[in-house]
Amino acid sequence: MQTDGVRIFGSETSPQLSIVIPTYNEAENIVPLLESIKSKISKIIHAEIIVVDDNSPDGTGVIVDNYIKNNGFAQNEGNINIKVIHRKQKTGLIQAILEGVSYAKGKQVLIMDADFSHPPEIIPKIIETSQKNDVSIIIASRYTNGGSIQGWSLKRRILSLAANHIARRSLNVPNVKDPMSGFFAFPRELIQNTNFDTKGYKILLELLVKERNAKIIEIPYAFTDRKSGKSKMNLGIILDYVQSVWQLYRYGKNANPNSFNRSARFFSKAARFFTVGASGLLVNYFVSILLSSGLFTKMWYMESTLVGIVASITSNFILNKIWTFDDRNFSPFHLIKQYLSFLCICSLGAIMQLSLVYGLVETGNSYELSLLFAVIVSSISNFILNKILTFKEKIYD
Fold it and tell me: How far apart, in whole angstroms, are the C-alpha atoms of residue 103 and residue 101?
């Protein structure tokens, strides 16, 4: 049977579980994945597998069609049914998942990736937990006790930890260890009245923010990096993530103003700190140009650059002390102590940035992405370290 780009094979009786698998260029992985899922769950539950293919150039969707036909699934009346949704264009991971869920008939829905980073061996444990807690969101977690990540580079680990920490703290979900997981199950009825409107690629994060009364259970699993195919991680995904966090932060702040007060103070100070940092770049540039141009005095360009750096650090310190951290203690000893601490931390940040750029570029990463990552890491570390060590504040004061 075929309806609006959806090919449906197998039994039409209602399944207990719908497994939604979004795909894009997963030709090497999809058939082994389907075989593995079948072998793990066919004897324990009546389920449907919904493959949502975004018009993959490598023919992933067609491969699934052929797999179904060649293995007799069109006449299968057993425990596993398969649906293939052929989307005409790639419009984002969340939209692909939502389209798959819209065709789901199971009481419970499980979301997973097609690249074997989400091991099918964990699905029976998710099913067991869901059956005992049928109103809960069940998250397969990399970061809860017993969870792990295998096969990732240091850069990917740092990016993931940073994204995870930002999500947990800024969106007020501190009790969820892995809100960025793409491997989770939930009652289908839970999202019937939920409006998903971010551009991000992690639907779980939006679900956690917009369904705060849902019970959460995390079970550990070992995430394994893909063996075949190409990772979808790129600069566009990082920017979409940042935009989504900001959008969800605004949503949560409006919906739950009291619970977001501490996060609001933190991000307000962070925004001020980074604004001051941007002003410091201008101070650095104009002081260096004025001193080297001979307008007031003629200095060697290296000397003028050094003075420009010192001037920008000094202006950054004063503005952060007065504006960002609202510190009005100007006693000489206290001021000098703070300034030296600020200077040391900024110098450490510069060394960190240079080291990260060098290490990432030398291991085959692009300079542009390496520089962006290094600037983000060093800027965040500068803010947090100065907040704690220079201006003696707790992180979320």
Answer: 5
